[in-house]
Design goal:
Low-confidence stretches of chain B: 1-19
CATH superfamily of chain B: P-loop containing nucleotide triphosphate hydrolases
Oligomer: heterodimer
Mean pLDDT of chain A: 88
CATH topology of chain B: Rossmann fold
CATH class of chain B: Alpha Beta
Strand order of the largest sheet of chain B: 6-7-8-3-9-10
Radius of gyration of chain B: 18 Å
Distance between the termini of chain B: 29 Å
Radius of gyration of chain A: 32 Å
Largest sheet of chain B: 6 strands, mixed
Helix content of chain A: 55-70%
Helix content of chain B: 25-40%
Shape of chain A: elongated
Largest interface: A-B, 27 and 30 residues
Strand content of chain B: 25-35%
Structural class of chain B: alpha/beta
Number of helices of chain A: 13
Mean pLDDT of chain B: 89
Structural class of chain A: alpha+beta
Shape of chain B: globular
Low-confidence stretches of chain A: none
Distance between the termini of chain A: 28 Å
Number of strands of chain B: 10
Strand content of chain A: 15-25%
Number of domains of chain A: 2
Order of helices and strands of chain B: EEEHEEHEHHHEHEHEE
Number of domains of chain B: 1
Strand order of the largest sheet of chain A: 3-4-11-6-8-7
Number of helices of chain B: 7
CATH architecture of chain B: 3-Layer(aba) Sandwich
Bound molecules: adenosine-5'-diphosphate, magnesium ion
Order of helices and strands of chain A: HHEEHEEHEHEHEEEEEHEEHEHHHHH
Chain lengths: 394, 254
């Protein structure tokens, strides 16, 4: 009996008992479905984060407090506006510098109130971080120098605080102090379900007074092109190395940030895939189990086949291929369900699930392998059955 | 070819057609089953199902093997069908000693030279008549289209040309047994081995199946060995081997 014929025999046996076939591979179907879905979720998160980091602007250097090694404790910033000015002097002509300080505060208008992120920013912040105002104007240097109480509101904050009205020229109260709205930001959309459109921007000096601090949280330097990023990065390092202890600050490019976050997300995806893989393994044990029962149930069939001329290896091959074909079918069904559920997840949750080719290929490969590995034992048992005993079996 | 040592009934001399050499030679064959340990300390129990039988089935011969239940008939048939090996003694198929054949060679021997008909029909459930009949051809490497043609011809030969795509559950007992007969003859075997072929059938259907088997024996010259405890069925054969307690008690001819 050649392989093609053996496949046909296996397929016929499966088709002859579809219910049993379905129950046999249920575990594999669920396992494969989980692999595809969970990897899609992990991958979706990765794409979102990438989009988010890239959306910060292009050719950026970020200076943040502490070290951004995976697992390092978050540390409190000791940067001040003096450092920002020093940095501006050092990179003048080669890069633009912006800085911010953030805190959550209650924001109130005549029509509404919400708790939201207040960003104290320097004058060049909108340009450096690619968050242009849609209407109205950006902060001027004098606004920052004098700590003027003016505000730029995010697109959602605008509609939330001033439903149906133009916010420009109106007043918002932040932590009890009144600010005049001078601009509305362009809509940014959500990253990982978090919207940046609810933020309210004020001059950094006004924010520091509001928060009662001299702190600056993040400093951003934008380079005119990717080529100058390395030299610029070294210069920024130098400036901060003179002013701070090593380990208390980090200068990062977007690629480095993506690298760190990417590692975290890869680990997450791997853990998810591993969990799904375990369920696939359990599914394999199920296949083995039901195949064993099936071999027992079909003892007489095996005896008959041997009486009609099947060799030990023909019977073994038949049952092995049955397990493989079953698991292959289970894999395909699981992949289809996984893709379907990913689409549902994308539609219903803020997290998009992005199905990847490699996870589909891997899931299919693994399910077929599961068929081989978990089919071998029942198949060998089937092949070794003594035909007389098998024919007498009641 | 060595002469069998013990009492040999020369099959070629019997009626029912075909001359030529022996298809199966059975010489001094015993078959014992060792049962699993009965109790600690006690010796293992051994069942002597066959205690030394010798006979020959000639080409184209029709032999009935008769005996009460438990006398060793099925055991003998399994040996004749190369499904089992004797404990002692030799069995030769067209001169070839089965004890010298490995698993694959035995399978090929069964596939090429022997056709089985069982009391329980042994058809694959949820499988059409043509597919059931074509099953032995699968193990001979015959392609699906060819298989279907030959299975159809075999089914037509047993009068079931109108039941090709029926499943066993849609057929009567008599029809199922005729499908089984078609399956046995589709490979053009030298010998048909039937173990109580009428055992699960009523008189009318039983007679029909026996008539079919005899026709095949007479028209195609295929040797036929029918095992039965039914003396009426046995009487159809020109030669009858009576088995009792694992021994050939006597042989009768008509
Ligand atoms: N696999 C086996 N293990 C143990 N004893 C068996 C086995 N097969 C048959 N026997 C015994 O051998 C004897 C002959 O059985 P069998 O050939 O089936 O007789 P028959 O077909 O004439 O009724 C019986 O006593 C039966 O119990
Ligand atoms: Mg019997």
């Amino acid at each position: 009996m050649n392989l093609r014929e053996a496949f046909r025999v296996a397929a016929t046996a499966i088709a002859a008992n579809r219910l049993r076939a379905g129950l046999t591979v249920l575990g594999v179907v669920i396992g494969v479905m989980s692999v595809v879905l969970l990897v899609a979720v992990g991958n979706g998160a990765r794409e979102e984060v990438t989009a988010g980091v890239e959306g910060l602007g292009s050719n950026l250097l970020l200076v943040v407090p502490g070290s951004l090694d995976f697992g390092a404790a978050p540390s409190r910033s000791r940067f001040t506006l003096d450092d920002v000015e020093e940095l501006e002097r050092a990179v003048r002509g080669d890069g633009d510098v912006a800085a911010n300080v953030t805190s959550g505060e209650f924001v109130r208008s005549a029509d509404g109130e919400s708790f939201t992120s207040i960003l104290g920013v320097t004058a060049g912040y909108n340009a450096v971080t690619s968050r242009p105002v849609e209407r109205g104007e950006e902060f001027r240097q004098t606004d920052v120098v004098t700590g003027r109480r003016v505000a730029i509101v995010g697109a959602e904050a605008a509609t939330g605080l001033f439903p149906g009205r133009d916010p420009i020229g109106r007043t918002v109260t932040i932590a009890g102090l009144r600010f005049r709205v001078v601009g509305v930001l362009e809509r940014q959309g959500a990253t990982l379900g978090v919207s940046r459109d609810t933020e309210v921007l004020v001059p950094i000096t006004a924010a520091q007074r509001l928060f009662g601090t001299r702190r600056v949280d993040t400093i951003v330097v934008s380079a005119p092109s990717t080529d100058v990023l390395p030299t610029l990065s070294r210069r920024v390092e130098q400036v901060f190395a003179e002013r701070f202890e090593p380990g208390t600050f980090s200068v990062l490019t977007q690629d480095q940030i993506l690298g760190v976050l990417g590692d975290v997300l890869d680990t997450l995806t791997l853990v998810l895939a591993a969990i799904a893989g375990i369920s696939l393994l359990v599914g394999g044990v199920g296949v083995s189990n039901i195949m064993l029962v099936s071999v027992q149930e079909r003892t007489r069939e095996i005896g008959l086949r041997k009486a009609l001329g099947a060799r030990t290896r023909d019977v073994t091959l038949q049952f092995l291929l049955e397990a493989v074909v079953l698991c292959g079918i289970g894999g395909v069904v699981g992949i289809a369900l996984g893709i379907g559920l990913s689409a549902v997840a994308t539609a219903l949750s803020p997290l998009p699930a992005v199905v990847t080719g490699w996870s589909v290929a891997l899931a299919f490969g693994v399910s077929v392998t599961v068929g081989v590995v978990f089919g071998v034992f029942p198949a060998r048992r089937a092949g070794r059955l003594d035909p007389v005993t098998a024919l007498r079996y009641e | 070819m060595t002469e069998p040592r013990a009492a040999v009934a020369d099959g070629a001399a019997g009626g029912g057609g075909g001359g030529g050499g022996a298809v199966i030679e059975v010489a001094d064959v015993t078959r014992s089953y060792v049962l699993g340990e009965a109790r600690k300390g006690e010796p293992r129990q051994v069942v002597h199902a066959l205690r030394g039988v010798s006979f020959t089935v000639g080409a184209g011969e029709f032999v009935a093997i008769v005996g009460p239940s438990g006398s060793g008939k099925s055991t003998l048939l399994h040996l004749l069908g190369a499904l089992d090996r004797p404990t002692t003694g030799t069995i030769r198929f067209s001169g070839r000693d089965v004890s010298r054949l490995d698993d694959a060679q035995l399978a090929e021997l069964r596939n090429r030279e022997i056709g089985f008909v069982f009391q329980q029909f042994q058809l694959l459930a949820r499988t059409s008549s043509v597919a059931n009949v074509g099953l032995p051809l699968v193990y001979r490497g015959v392609g699906p289209a060819d298989r279907r043609d030959r299975a159809r011809a075999a089914l037509e030969a047993v009068g079931l040309g109108h039941r090709l795509d029926h499943r066993p559950s849609m057929l009567s007992g008599g029809e199922q047994q005729r499908v089984a007969v078609a399956r046995a003859l589709v490979t053009d075997p030298n010998v048909l081995l039937a173990d109580e072929p009428t055992g699960n059938l009523d008189t009318v259907n039983g007679a029909e199946v026996m008539r079919l088997l005899r026709t095949l024996n007479e028209e195609r010259g295929v040797a036929l060995v029918v095992i039965t405890h039914d003396l009426e069925v046995a009487a159809l054969a020109p030669r009858r081997i009576h088995v009792r307690d694992g021994l050939i008690e006597r042989e009768t001819r008509s």
